[in-house]
């Protein structure tokens, strides 16, 4: 296994994980504080998917922080295989959730000409934007993990 | 570079490419024959994305068929790098397009209780289902290409 920035137990790896759970938490906070999100299946799915991303990334960020503090290298092949599967599932679910919510947001803002839910509308947009921002670091992590597994 | 099933110029590679462009063509056909798809940004985006997937996969299927007929091995590193980038971009756009259209389809069928566009509704559902089915082989191709690049 090769040791390059972004792999588990490196500073870039920790930064990627932290940005993942921060964006996921922001997306959940923006969506869950609207009073009508539960009327939309896509928005409920977005919260579920961001919840999964938050838990997954938070656990891995803690593991990275521990490895950095103790100066350990986390390149166990079994661990990397597990991370590849988990990262890919999380990244695909996040992109699908963000896109389905974006589809509905665009429908209300653009196609129907206006959004009748007043200030909630802005929160929907913020939540979708944060979900997409959170998807960028998790897709980078997924690629790094797959590369690590293939090159190992 | 390793030679395993699914890489360019193999029978499985050709089968994957063919299923990609067949599903993309089916999805476009189902969506473009509805008279009101242009009112929905997400549905227009689905057609654009499936169009890209159709062209991309059709060109690569022709290349695979040529390589199979002439018994050539297409493992040029520059070609594989190009295929990795193209496959990933196409796969991500297809998943995003399928999910945003699925979000709107679920909104009309489930959240709003009924779909007021009569027989078009079924076509929307078929188009989204075919887009997801087309995403499966292109994501498999993407993984195989990245693996080939990393292992090469």
Mean pLDDT of chain A: 89
Work out the oligomeric state of the chains in this entry.
Answer: homodimer
Largest interface: A-B, 24 and 23 residues
Rg of chain A over CA atoms, rounded to whole Å, is 17 Å
The CA-CA distance between the termini of chain A, in Å, is: 4 Å
Domain Casparian strip membrane protein (chains A, B): 7-136
Membrane topology (chains A, B): Multi-pass membrane protein
Keywords (chains A, B): Cell membrane, Membrane, Transmembrane, Transmembrane helix
Subcellular location (chains A, B): Cell membrane
What does this molecule look like?
2 copies of one chain form a homodimer. The first copy, chain A, has 152 residues and is mostly helical. The first copy, chain A, has one domain. Helices cover 79% and strands 0% of the residues of chain A. The first copy, chain A, has helices spanning 11-32, 41-70, 77-111, 119-151. The model of chain A has no long low-confidence stretch (mean pLDDT 89). At the A-B interface, helix 3 and helix 4 of A face helix 3 and helix 4 of B. Chains A, B: Belongs to the Casparian strip membrane proteins (CASP) family. Chains A, B: It holds the Pfam family CASP_dom.
């Amino acid at each position: 296994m090769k040791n390059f920035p972004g792999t588990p137990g490196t500073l870039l790896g920790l930064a990627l994980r932290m940005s993942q759970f921060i964006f996921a938490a922001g997306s959940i906070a923006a969506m869950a504080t609207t009073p009508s999100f539960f009327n939309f299946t896509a928005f409920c799915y977005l919260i579920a998917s961001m919840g999964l991303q938050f838990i997954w990334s938070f656990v891995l960020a803690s593991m990275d922080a521990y490895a950095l503090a103790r100066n350990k290298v986390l390149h166990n092949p079994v661990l990397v295989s597990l991370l590849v599967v988990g990262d890919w599932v999380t990244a695909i679910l996040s992109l699908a959730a963000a896109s389905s919510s974006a589809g509905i947001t665009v429908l209300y803002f653009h196609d129907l000409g206006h959004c009748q839910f007043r200030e909630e509308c802005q929160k929907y947009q913020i939540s979708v934007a944060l979900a997409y921002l959170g998807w960028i670091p998790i897709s980078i992590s997924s690629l790094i993990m797959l590369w690590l597994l293939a090159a190992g």
